[in-house]
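User: quick one, sequence for these tokens?
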């Protein structure tokens, strides 16, 4: 069984630092959220949304600039001469 449990950060840090910290694991398990069998992968929704938005925006911007007619060509004189 896979279970999501919420343990306060200060308790996790105390345990990671080797402190002898008493934490009621029975309570954590009883209050945990079981994951159903066959669940999909878990992702950070905020990160996924930001990446999706950034890629959509980049695609739209690329299309808009590509479809915009040139009024005056770029002056590449300084670039080509170094």
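Assistant:
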């Amino acid at each position: 069984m896979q279970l999501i449990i919420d343990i306060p950060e200060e308790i996790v840090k105390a345990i990671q630092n080797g402190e002898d910290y008493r934490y009621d694991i029975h309570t954590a398990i009883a209050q945990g959220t079981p994951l159903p069998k066959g669940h999909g992968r878990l992702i950070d929704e905020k990160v996924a949304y930001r990446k999706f938005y950034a890629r959509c925006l980049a695609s739209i911007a690329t299309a808009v600039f590509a479809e915009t007619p040139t009024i005056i060509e770029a002056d590449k004189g300084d670039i080509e001469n170094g």
